[in-house]
């Protein structure tokens, strides 16, 4: 793959496939894809974990049907690929969705990028047993979630899936970061990169990201993709990731009782 069009399509497939994988493993989760509109729901009361992704040309009616399928009781995110935004401006306005200023980039790492060693005091390891699973869950929960949410998002079946690798990053032996690699065909995606607040800016997130890249390459995936927040963009760009397509994200974060 060498063109932005091909790489953008590969990144989109992984984005959709990763949320599909999440819905497969979360109890009560479901997913559907019709006419270029992918929708998924986990039932969790968090917008990130329910949503709709418009990754190919679609009609307003098709998107409205997907949002109706999500139901009236769940917060969700609506992802719209850049270049398709104008066609859904009226829908977004009518739905009263919150917008974010940042257009989220789908970024791809050059196949030739060399994985460096971690910063001093930083190490990573893969979740492979009950002890390392509990360690991973503990970091995710401490990062702003709860133990219950962490276990629902990352049940043991998800961690054991052959297309998933979960990683914990440590600083001076203390678990403080996470990342997840998810494979869709010959593409690997990097997800759930996070560092506990008191351990940031020490190279933990970078090491966790490189560990997920390494997991993808261990599967034989030459193409590795991720979506970047505004805070992480400069870090990922310095690692060699480049933007191939961007998404606008709109959210229904609160649901009326």
Describe the protein's architecture and organization.
With about 260 residues, this protein is an alpha+beta fold. Strands 1, 2, 3, 4, 5, 6, 7, 8, 9, 10, 11 and 12 form a twelve-stranded mixed beta sheet that branches. α4 crosses α5.
How are the elements arranged and paired?
Elements: H1 4-25, E1 30-34, E2 37-41, E3 50-54, H2 60-70, E4 76-81, H3 89-95, E5 98-99, E6 104-109, E7 122-126, H4 130-142, H5 147-153, H6 156-160, E8 164-171, E9 174-184, E10 187-195, H7 204-218, E11 223-227, H8 233-239, E12 241-252
Helix pairs in contact: 4-5
Write a short abstract of this structure.
The chain is α+β, with helices and mostly antiparallel strands. Helix content is about 35%, strand content about 30%.
The largest sheet, given as strand count, sense and whether it forms a barrel, is:
12 strands, mixed
Radius of gyration (CA) equals 18 Å
What are the segments in which pLDDT stays under 50 over at least 5 consecutive residues?
none
Number of strands: 12
Strand content: 25-35%
Question: Which class do the helix and strand fractions yield?
Answer: alpha+beta
Distance between the termini: 48 Å
Helix share bin: 25-40%
* Pattern of helices and strands: HEEEHEHEEEHHHEEEHEHE
Q: Overall mean pLDDT score?
A: 94
Shape: globular
Tally of individual helices: 8
What number of structural domains do the residues give? 2
């Amino acid at each position: 793959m060498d063109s932005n069009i091909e790489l953008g399509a590969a990144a989109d497939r992984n984005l959709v496939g990763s949320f599909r994988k999440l819905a497969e493993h979360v109890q009560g989760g479901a997913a559907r894809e019709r006419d270029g509109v992918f929708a998924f729901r986990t039932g969790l009361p968090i917008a990130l974990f329910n949503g709709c992704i418009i990754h190919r040309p679609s009609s307003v009616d098709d998107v409205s049907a997907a949002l109706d399928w999500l139901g009236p009781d769940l917060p969700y995110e609506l992802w719209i690929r850049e270049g398709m935004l104008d066609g859904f401006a009226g829908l977004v306005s009518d739905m009263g969705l919150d917008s974010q200023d940042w257009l989220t980039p789908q970024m791809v790492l050059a196949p030739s990028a060399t994985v460096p060693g971690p910063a001093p005091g930083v190490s990573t390891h893969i979740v492979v047993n009950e002890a390392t699973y509990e360690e991973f869950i503990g970091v995710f929960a401490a990062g702003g979630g709860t133990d219950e949410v962490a276990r629902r998002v990352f049940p043991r079946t998800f961690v054991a899936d052959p297309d998933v690798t979960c990683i914990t990053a440590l600083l001076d032996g203390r678990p403080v970061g996470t990342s997840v690699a998810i494979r869709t065909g010959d593409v690997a995606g990097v997800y759930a990169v996070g560092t506990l607040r008191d351990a940031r800016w020490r190279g933990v997130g970078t090491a966790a990201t490189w560990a997920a890249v390494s997991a993808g390459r261990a599967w034989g995936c030459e193409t590795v993709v991720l979506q970047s927040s505004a805070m992480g963009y400069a870090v990922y760009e310095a690692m060699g990731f480049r933007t191939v397509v961007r998404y606008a994200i709109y959210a229904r974060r609160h649901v009326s009782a």
